[in-house]
Structures are given as structure tokens and as C-alpha cells.
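thought: fold this chain, then report.
action: predict
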Amino acid sequence: MDNTTLIVVVAVAVLAVLAVVWMVMQQRRRTHLKDKFGPEYDQALRQHSDPRAAERELLDRERRVATFTINPLTRDDASRFMEAWRRIQSRFVDDPKGAVVDADRLVDEVMRTRGYPVADFEQRAADISVDHPRVVSNYRSARVIAGRNVRGETNTEELRQALVHYRELFADLLEIREEDRREPAVRAKAAGAGGR
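observation:
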């Protein structure tokens, strides 16, 4: 084999290896995004006809949310929000329209307290999809019904469904700081041991 042929064979082999590495990296990225985003991955594919554009958007969401300081709730905040949710649910019987409006506001407040920006709904849903991909579709559905509620275009069953959707997102957002999850006796014991 002469030098020219050898160089061509090596170049083709290097290109083949690079192509395989690129395909493996693409498959890993796709698997990561499917695992992380679940049904939201499929939603992005439906929204964009090009899978690469959909995956680029999901990666952009991850990068954006990585710049946020998302905090778990303190036990006091979680208790306050849970009590507010109980009031909303009990109010539903007498005022389903008002309960849905209040549920929307409460979810926004929890998100704000956790550290999510809450200015624009579509951006908010995209941001939530990074950490809560399994319930973001509930959020979108609830907001559609809430919008129809404001226009007076809903019935009680639709309002009930909106409240169920909000509850799913609310429960997912209600993460509590690790140190506040421990039982009070364990926290007191740990504080006593630390003071010695």
C-alpha cells in the first residue's frame, strides 16, 4: 500500500469513528431528554416538526432553569400553602369559579416562593417542565380551563377537573427543605448534640 492510499484509509477510518461517536452522543442526548422530560418530550416534538429543534428547545430550558435558584419550601411555608389549599378545596362546593381562580393564584405563589419566575405563562410552563415534567401538562390544561372560566364558558365538571390539575402540580411543587423533613424530635436531638 502506498502512502496516499494509507492516508485515505486512515482518514476514512477516522471519519467513520467520528460519525459513530456523534451518533452515540446524539442517542445519549435523546435518551437523557426523553427520560428527563417524559411526556413533555413528546409535546415538544408535536410543537416542532423537527426533532433536533425540539431537543434544542428542551436543552435551552434546562440551561435557563439551571441559572435559577430554586429552593425547597420551609416547613412553615409548606404548612401555610397546604392550609391555603385546604381552604380552596372546601370553597369549591360553594364557589367553584372562585376556587379555580384562587388555585391558580396559589400555584403562582408557590412557584414564586420556590424561585421560579412567574411573568409569562408559556415561559413559566416551560420552566416548570424542567423539574416537574410529569405535571406540566396538568398545568397547561388547568390554565386553559381557568381562561375559559374567566370568560364564563365553563361548567362545574370542567372547573372540578381544573382543580384536580392544579392539585397535581401543587403537590409536585410542595417540596420541603431536607432539614425540615426530619421529625421534630430528630431535629431537637441533632440541635442538642451540636450544642455540646
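thought: worth noting. The CA atoms of residues 27 and 140 lie 29 Å apart.
final: C-alpha cells above.
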